[in-house]
């Protein structure tokens, strides 16, 4: 902080000294360059010191008394008065130093010089305007960066909350399926436990991730459907025509949630099986099922599609779409590529 203040001081000193050289270059009252240069250094140090003192005082008063945005007229008149005082002090010191140290024959010049005071006042107000402008711009940019950071942190926290609501529901249903198999077929139950362990491992390993590859998600849903098929047999069928494309990602558990929802909200038996289909086109992944009217096997909790849509929005800025098309219930998922998603969530 101290080094920065020193650098700022010397940068301003060089600027003022350069202006002094330009303005006084044609002044022939100085008989040699040394006096001219020494006078310029003294004058520049004085102006910079007084200017920085003014800035510190103004900043202090703004924090204690008023703010430019809430009281603009008060601030304007205060700056004009303060600028006039600054200009008057500059005029007095300028005249005193010149007369007593450099040009004693200028003693007949008065301490009050309206032209010099007006000029210094204009310079003061101009410099103050630029200073306030850049301070405002800096504050706006800092606030924008902070807002973006908070937005991303809130999005991640919200995502984890939504995900936590889904995982207990999935685990409960899986354990219910397992409980019905243990006493029927030990070997099948063993395979069921193996698949379930892979599902749980997937959930644990991907717990803190906002997305997984489509290939990983398909492996996950295939393990899940093994459990379903073991319980219901041909009453529920899964047809997969998804094309595995490189760098395509989805929120973890997407296809499993949609498969589970299809089973929950439709009746299913061997005579009227439930057909679940996975397929895609260039821009979307589709999960569809035929509508089998009847009493659903589980009451809806309202979590599935709503939370899934929010998860997609947090990941890519797009919602999912769903509805009945030609007698089938169809869920339409936007295809997300990893690079585009990383830009959206700021990874």
Automatic annotation (TrEMBL):
Alphabetical UniProt keywords: Kinase, Membrane, Transferase, Transmembrane, Transmembrane helix
A GO cellular component annotation in the UniProt record: membrane
InterPro entries from the UniProt entry: Bact_2-comp_sensor_kinase (IPR050640), Sig_transdc_His_kin_internal (IPR010559)
Pfam families referenced in this protein's UniProt entry, alphabetically: His_kinase
Transmembrane segments: 9-26, 41-61, 73-97, 109-131
Domain Signal transduction histidine kinase internal region: 158-235
Single GO MF annotation: phosphorelay sensor kinase activity
Protein name stated in the entry: Histidine kinase
